[in-house]
Design a protein that fits this description.
- By secondary structure, this protein is α/β, with parallel strands linked by helices.
- It is built from 12 helices and 14 strands.
- The chain starts with a helix and ends with a helix.
- Bound molecules: phosphoenolpyruvate and cobalt (II) ion (CO).
C-alpha cells in the first residue's frame, strides 16, 4: 500500500520555484542535441511579451468556480494538435465558428453561461507512447508536435529543433491576435450569428436544426430589445480563453512570471494549461511545476488512476481548496467509466475537495482500424458522455464541462454520427497529425445532446 500522505507532505515541504521541477523526473521531454541553441531560444522566449494576462486568467478562474457549482458550463474544444502550417485564416475561423455555434446551442437551451476555452494558440506539444518510430526498417525519433520537431519521416524532420519553440510561440501569438480582433470587431455579436455559418455545412440536418434555433432566438432577442428599448446582448462579454497541455516544461517555465500588484507566479503562455494523463505522476516534474502557478489548471484523469492517488494530486495542486483552481477532466472510455468514475467522485467528495468535473469522451475511445488508421466511434463518444452525466447526477455531483477534439473543417476522422461515416470514408479527408477529431456535424450533434442532458 502506497503512503500517499507521506508523499504529499514531502512535496509540500519542498520550496517551489519556476524551475524546481528540474530536480524531479520529467517524462515526455524532448532531447535536444544543441544545448546552446536551446538556451538561446529559452532566453528569447522569456523576453517576448506574454500571450495572456493575469486579469484574464483570474477572470477565467472565477468563471470556472461558477461552473463547479453548476452555474455555468465549460466548453473546452479544439484540435488535438495544432500545426504551424495550419496557422491560417480559414482554419482559425472555422474552429471559432464551431465553438460559437456550439456555445450558442448550449446557452440558449440551458440558459447557462458557457465558458469557451479553445485547445488553441499553443497546443503544439504532444505526449507519445513510444520514443521512436520504425518504418521500413528505419528507426527515427517519434513526432512530438510542431513545437518540437516535424512529422516528416526524415532524420532532419524528427530532430528536436529549439528554433521551433520560437516559431510555435509566434504562431500562438498570431492566432490569438486574430481571435482577439475578431471578437473585439463584432464576430461574436449575438445579433449576427450568420457570422458563424460555415460555407460547406448549410445542408446538413445539424445545420438546419441549428438555423431553426438561431432564427427563433434572433426573433426573441429583437422582441426583448423593442420592449426594453436597448440592446440586451453585450458583445464585449463574449470571451474565448486559450488552453494547451503544459507538457514541455522548459517552454512553460520561460513565460512563468510575476506580475505587478499580484502575488504568486503566472504562466502567461495560456489561460488554462492542463496536465496530461501520461505526465500526472504525483512525484514527477509536471505536478511540481503546476503546483506553484496561479492559473486554473486541468488534470486529465485516465482509467489507471487510484482514488487515493487522485485525492493526493488534488491536495498537492490545490492545498487551499480554492474553487475554480482545479478541473478534473476524466477520460475513462465508454466501457470503463461506469466502474471507474463512481469511486473517484466518492473519494473527492469524502475529502471535501472543491473541483470542477469535466468529461473528455474522446481519449478513452481511440482505436485503430484494421488498416491502421487511428479513429473513434461517435456512438462510443456519446455513450461515455451520457454515462458521465448520469453518474454525476446519481451521485449528487455536477458535471460542469466537456472537453472535445474537433475542427471546423469538413474532415473524416471519427466514424459514425448522423451522416453515417464508415471506416471506408476515413481516407477521404483525414487531416489530423495525431488524434481523430469530430467534424462539424458530429460536433453539433454532440452540442444538441449536451443541451438535452443539461435540461433534464
Ligand atoms: C490530449 O488531450 O490530446 C491527450 C493526449 O490527452 P490525455 O492526456 O488525456 O491522453
Ligand atoms: Co488528443
Amino acid at each position: 500500500m502506497e503512503n500517499y500522505l507521506e508523499k504529499v507532505e514531502a512535496i509540500q515541504a519542498g520550496l517551489w520555484a519556476p524551475g524546481s521541477w528540474q530536480n524531479k523526473t520529467a517524462s515526455q521531454q524532448p532531447i535536444y542535441d544543441d544545448d546552446a541553441g536551446l538556451q538561446s531560444s529559452l532566453q528569447r522566449l522569456a523576453q517576448l511579451p506574454p500571450l495572456v494576462t493575469s486579469w484574464e486568467i483570474e477572470s477565467l478562474k472565477s468563471q470556472l468556480a461558477q461552473a463547479a457549482e453548476g452555474k455555468a458550463f465549460l466548453l473546452q474544444a479544439g484540435d488535438c494538435s495544432e500545426r504551424i502550417e495550419d496557422c491560417q485564416t480559414d482554419a482559425i475561423v472555422g474552429n471559432l465558428k464551431v465553438l460559437m455555434q456550439m456555445s450558442f446551442v448550449l446557452t440558449y437551451a440551458t440558459s447557462q453561461r458557457v465558458i469557451r476555452v479553445g485547445r488553441i494558440a499553443g497546443q503544439y506539444a504532444k505526449p507519445r507512447s513510444t520514443e521512436t518510430e520504425t518504418r521500413g526498417g528505419v528507426e527515427l525519433p517519434v513526432y512530438r508536435g510542431d513545437l518540437i520537431n516535424r512529422s516528416d519521416f526524415t532524420p532532419e524532420g524528427r530532430r528536436a529543433d529549439p528554433e521551433l519553440l520560437i516559431r510555435g510561440y509566434e504562431r500562438a501569438a498570431m492566432t490569438l491576435n486574430f481571435i482577439r480582433s475578431l471578437i473585439g470587431g463584432g464576430f461574436a455579436d449575438l445579433h449576427h450569428p450568420e457570422n458563424w455559418d460555415l460555407d460547406f455545412a448549410n445542408e446538413t440536418p445539424q445545420a438546419k436544426q441549428y438555423h431553426n434555433m438561431v432564427h427563433s432566438i434572433a426573433n426573441s432577442l429583437k422582441f426583448m430589445e423593442s420592449i426594453l428599448d436597448r440592446s440586451v446582448a453585450d458583445t464585449k462579454s463574449v470571451d474565448i480563453y486559450t488552453s494547451h497541455e503544459g507538457l514541455h516544461l522548459t517552454y512553460e517555465q520561460a513565460q512563468t512570471q510575476r506580475v505587478p500588484r499580484r502575488d504568486g507566479w503566472y504562466n502567461l503562455n495560456a489561460h488554462f494549461p492542463w496536465i496530461g494523463n501520461r505526465t500526472r505522476h504525483l512525484e514527477g516534474a509536471h505536478i511540481e511545476y503546476f503546483r506553484g502557478i496561479e492559473n486554473p489548471i486541468g488534470l486529465k484523469v485516465g482509467p489507471e488512476i487510484k482514488p487515493e492517488e487522485l485525492v493526493s494530486l488534488v491536495q498537492v495542486l490545490n492545498p487551499q481548496n480554492e474553487l475554480g483552481r482545479i478541473t478534473l477532466i476524466h477520460r475513462l472510455g465508454a466501457g470503463g467509466i461506469g466502474k471507474a468514475l463512481p469511486p473517484l467522485i466518492s473519494a473527492v467528495q469524502k475529502a471535501k475537495q472543491k473541483v470542477l468535473w469535466c468529461s473528455d469522451p474522446m481519449h478513452g475511445n481511440t482505436f485503430q482500424t484494421d488498416s491502421g488508421t487511428k479513429t473513434r466511434r461517435f456512438e462510443a463518444i456519446v455513450d461515455e458522455l451520457t454515462q458521465a452525466f448520469a453518474i454525476h447526477r446519481r451521485m449528487e455531483s455536477i458535471l460542469g464541462g466537456v472537453h472535445l477534439e474537433l475542427t471546423g473543417s469538413d474532415v473524416t476522422e471519427c466514424v459514425g454520427g448522423a451522416t453515417g461515416l464508415t471506416e471506408a470514408d476515413l481516407d477521404r479527408a483525414y487531416k489530423s497529425a495525431v488524434d481523430p477529431r469530430l467534424n462539424y456535424d458530429q460536433a453539433m450533434e454532440i452540442a444538441f445532446l449536451i443541451a438535452e442532458e443539461m435540461v433534464v
